[in-house]
Recover the amino acids of this structure.
């Protein structure tokens, strides 16, 4: 069993940006951060992420340390990234693309992707990233929904994924292609001509902060992905959370492992580190435990932002591999995207010397909302406390338009946020009714169930759709999964409610084992016994099935919905 609280560490090499949480909350105003970024020409993400730095001393600082999949590497300064950004903006203007037009990117993690995103934002066009591992269907659905006018991709991705479906995308006027080991296809524009041939100077037009900037599709964990619309003002949140939740300081080397095809990879892999003016590592390779450790060690990563699935895969690879590497420079390790089980939080402390700091947010919120802060005691399994400037509560819907705020500690309800933070989404594209349904009273309802303890920490219970109703109890899958994950044999766990004539649902667990362990009835009994002793008979699973792996969606999240469908 994991300790309930890990006391905050004494200061590392630099004092944390948030030294006293309560004090930071009291003194915080979004308008102060906005005032820092707001210029005479409004607030444009490209201006504050890149141009602002490229004009001064920062121009020579490394913005991106790109590490290619074939061992190639490029260090790109803020100045050089600004030049490529401006060229891309000019290329778009030259093609007749302007404010409000949607530019999609389907790229591996290559430097051009970063210039394309920033160049799009610089001319007030709207950037929408696609995950490069998508097959044709998700690409077509998203590009049609967003009415993409331009696509940036690579020659191989074009040949494999776009050429076969281009007829289905009549609104797509231009495809700009980065050369790789394939030739530039006939009906596309080569990056080397269309972009590199442009002038390296670009005027960013005055940008009102509420100008549409980004179109982010949700992960599709609970159903059809929604396209959340975000505005340039979101960058205020990116800077504030980079400082407060990720504790970025100017000398940090930051690595966000999320792909920019998802909101985390764009908000925190691209925008936040540049706005904060740090050096960030961009690794093109796929996950491999050994490679990740090497990268952390070799690049002297100091702040690392990753996800529970990746952490559990590292744990599965065993502690010995981790101990072969010097990971002592990592002073902040944070996680987002799914619940982080206490075992994983503690594993961070064991191998990195610092517990993983879980934080919570979603595509709709545009940035981190609830976090464990470096200076605060960590309660393993808790998402932490709301960011200064963010008001969160547990509520119960009483009608379509009203909620009751639950003030009794440790009571489950829906996690709600008071609108007003800068990166709040401004709608779901073409789905206004769905957007309006997210609001009741003066709250935004997140669709996640949680509880808040007496000290203000929030605890994730489950997605509203995943919660199990058994014999009159509401059971969150995360709590059950966390206990199973404490067993040394268990690498992954997914828990669902299986329909039952008597109990309505019974708790059923699916478990994937670590290498070296074999499924057996004895192990099943052991796991059932562990769960019963820790959770009580009402909450513990009644059935456990062993699976070679637990199904996940493209974003790497456990698909409990799919486990349930398979079970039925
Ligand atoms: P869709 O909305 O399409 O079903 P999704 O909700 O998975 O997909 P995202 O916006 O990428 O799409 O994910 C946000 C969700 O991920 C949150 O609402 C929450 O359910 C889950 N999540 C994110 N961070 C955490 C965390 N730290 N702990 C628990 N759950 C988390
Ligand atoms: Mg969601």
């Amino acid at each position: 069993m994991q300790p309930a609280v890990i006391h905050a560490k004494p200061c590392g090499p630099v004092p944390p940006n948030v030294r006293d949480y309560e004090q930071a909350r009291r003194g915080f105003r979004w308008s102060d951060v906005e005032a820092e970024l707001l210029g005479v020409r409004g607030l444009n993400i490209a201006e504050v992420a890149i141009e602002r730095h490229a004009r001064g001393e920062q121009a020579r600082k490394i913005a991106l340390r790109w590490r290619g999949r074939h061992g190639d590497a490029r260090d790109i300064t803020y100045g050089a990234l600004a030049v490529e950004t401006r060229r891309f903006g000019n290329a778009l203007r030259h093609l007749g693309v302007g404010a409000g037009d949607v530019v999609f990117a389907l790229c591996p993690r290559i430097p051009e992707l970063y210039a394309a995103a920033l160049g799009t934002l610089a001319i007030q066009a709207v950037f929408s990233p696609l995950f490069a591992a998508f097959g044709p269907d998700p690409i077509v659905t998203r590009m049609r929904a967003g009415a993409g006018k331009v696509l940036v991709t690579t020659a191989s991705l074009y040949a494999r994924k776009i050429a076969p479906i281009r007829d289905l995308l009549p609104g797509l006027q231009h495809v700009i292609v980065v050369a790789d080991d394939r030739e530039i296809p006939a009906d596309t524009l080569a990056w080397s001509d269309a972009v590199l041939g442009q002038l390296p100077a670009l005027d960013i037009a005055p940008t009102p902060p509420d100008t549409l900037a980004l179109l982010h599709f949700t992960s599709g964990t609970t159903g059809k992905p929604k396209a959340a619309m975000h505005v340039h003002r979101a960058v205020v949140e990116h800077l504030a959370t980079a400082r407060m939740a990720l504790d970025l300081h100017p000398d940090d080397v930051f690595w966000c492992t999320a792909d920019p095809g998802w909101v985390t990879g764009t908000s925190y892999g691209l925008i936040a580190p540049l706005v904060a003016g740090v050096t960030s590592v961009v690794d093109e390779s796929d996950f491999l435990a050994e490679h990740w450790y090497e990268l952390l060690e070799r690049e002297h990563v100091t702040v690392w932002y990753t996800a529970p699935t990746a952490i559990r895969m590292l744990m599965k690879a065993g502690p010995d591999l981790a101990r072969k590497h010097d990971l002592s420079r990592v002073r902040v390790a944070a996680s987002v995207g799914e619940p982080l089980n206490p075992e994983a939080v503690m594993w961070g402390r064991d191998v990195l010397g610092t517990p993983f700091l879980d934080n919570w947010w979603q595509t709709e919120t545009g940035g981190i909302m609830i976090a464990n802060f470096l200076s605060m005691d960590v309660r393993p399994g808790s998402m932490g406390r709301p960011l200064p400037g963010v008001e969160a509560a547990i509520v119960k819907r009483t009608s379509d338009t009203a909620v009751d705020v639950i003030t009794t500690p440790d009571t489950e309800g829906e996690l709600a946020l008071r609108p007003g933070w800068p990166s709040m989404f401004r709608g779901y594209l073409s789905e206004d009714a769905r957007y309006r349904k997210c609001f009741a009273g003066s709250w935004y309802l997140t669709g996640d169930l949680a509880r808040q303890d007496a000290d203000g920490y929030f605890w994730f219970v489950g997605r509203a759709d995943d919660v199990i109703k058994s014999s009159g109890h509401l059971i969150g899958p995360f709590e059950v999964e966390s206990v199973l994950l404490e067993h040394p044999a268990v690498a992954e766990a997914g828990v669902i409610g299986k329909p039952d004539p008597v109990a309505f649902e019974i708790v059923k667990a699916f478990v994937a084992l670590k290498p070296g362990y074999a499924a057996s009835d004895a192990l099943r009994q052991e796991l059932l016994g562990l769960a019963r002793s820790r959770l009580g008979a009402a909450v513990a699973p009644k059935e456990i099935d062993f699976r070679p792996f637990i199904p996940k969606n493209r974003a790497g999240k456990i698909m409990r919905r799919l486990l349930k469908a398979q079970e039925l």
About this structure: Residues 246 and 332 are 7 Å apart (CA to CA). The pocket of magnesium ion (ligand 2) is lined by residues 218, 222, 362, 447 (CB under 6 Å). The chain has a mean pLDDT of 95.
